[in-house]
Amino acid sequence: MARRKRIPYDPPHLRSKRKRRPPASAEQMQMTRRMFLSRGAVVGAFTLLAGRLGYMQLLEGERYRTEAAENIREVETLKPTRGVMYDRKKRELAVNRETWEVRILPGELPEDDAAQREVLDQVINALNIPDALVLDPRDVPDGAMATVNARTAQLLGKTLTVEKTDQTILHPFFRVPGQLVRVNGQDLQVFVYQDVNARKSDSARISADGTMIAGEVVEWPATPRFASNGNVLTVMLTDDSRLGARVERAISTLGDQSTMDSVVKTLSEDALQAWTDYIETEMGINFLVRLEDELTTDQAALCRAHLNEIPGVKVMNQLDYMVENGRYLERIVVKTGVPRETALKLEANKLYLPGVELEDGVLVRRYPGGDAMSHILGYVGQISQRELDNPRNLDVFGDP
Hints:
This protein is α+β, with helices and mostly antiparallel strands and 400 residues long. It has helices spanning 12-18, 26-59, 61-71, 113-127, 145-156, 196-203, 241-251, 260-283, 297-305, 318-325, 340-348, 372-376, 385-389; strands spanning 85-86, 92-104, 131-135, 162-169, 178-183, 186-192, 212-213, 216-217, 224-229, 232-237, 289-295, 313-317, 332-338, 356-366. Among the domains are: 85-129 and 318-393, Penicillin-binding protein 2a (Domain 2), CATH 3.90.1310; 162-274, no CATH class.
C-alpha cells in the first residue's frame, strides 16, 4: 500500500507574507473611486428622501391631512325644509311641492367658445329663456353715461311725458280746485293747497281704498291712486300700477311750498333721476346692468335698431347675462319649476351638456288659498342680493 503524501505545515506568521496581494492597478483604483462615489450618492439620496418624508409627516402632517380632506369634501349649503301649515280644521294653508330646477356652473362649461355656445343654446331653447336689454358700462365712453341713461330711459319708456292742461277740476269734498295734467296719456288731478295743514285735513277724509271721501261714496271713472306730500294732493285715475307707482315716487319728493309748475317739473325730471339711480346702483353691484327683462320679439327688434346710437347697450339672452355676470365657481339658478318633460329631455342629454345641473328635489312653497295667502301668513319672498345691497335699504351705519 502506497504511502500518502503529507501536506506540509504552513505557519500563520509566514502565511500572510507569502500570499501578499500584488499592488492594485490604475484601472482598479479608478473603479474603486467610482463605487465609493456611487454608494455615497445613493446613501445621500435616501438620506434626503428620509428627511423629506420625516418633515412632511412630523412638521407638515396636519396641513397635508387637511388638504387631503378638502379634496374629497365639497361644501354645499342646504336650505332648511319649511314646515307645512294647517288651520284649525286641518286644512292645508302652506305646503311644499317638489319641482325640477336647472342650474349652471360656469366653471364647468366648455372652454371652447363654440362648444360653450352650443350648450347654452340648447338650454335656452329647452327653457324658452327670453332676451334682455343689457348695459355694459365698460363700453361706454367717458362722459357719455348721462346720455346713455337718457336715451335708454326714452327707448324703454322709463320717462314720464307730462302735459299741463287748462282744465280745472272741482270736487265738493276738496277745499281747493285742482288742475288736470296728462301723464303718459293718463289723467292726473293735481290739488295745490296754501299750506301743509290744509292738505292734511283733506287727505284725512279719504278712505284707504279711495272709494269714500268725507263719509260719502265716490264713483270714479277708473281706479283712483292717491298721492300726497307737502302741500300737494294728487289723484291718478289709471289701472297701470307701474305708472301710478312712478307718479307716487315723484310726488313724495315735493316740498311744503310747491306750485303747479314745480309739480310738472318734478314729474318730468324725477323719472329720469330714478332711472339713473337704478343704473348707478346696479353698476356698484354687477358687471353688467340689466335694463329690461323678457323682451318681446318686437321690443328686441326695436332695441337692436337703436343699438348703434347708444354705446354699451346690447340685446342678449338672459342666460348669457347670468353666465357673464356670475362667478366662475358659483352655481347659477337658471329656472325653478321646470316641467317634468323638459327636465327629462335635458337629463337624457346630460352627457352633452357639461356645466348644466338638474335637481329634482327642490322644494317650492305653494299656497292652496291663493297668492294672497302668502301675505296673510306673513311671508313675501326671499330677499335678493340686489335688494340687500341697495343703499336705500341700509341704515346710517351701512348695515342692512
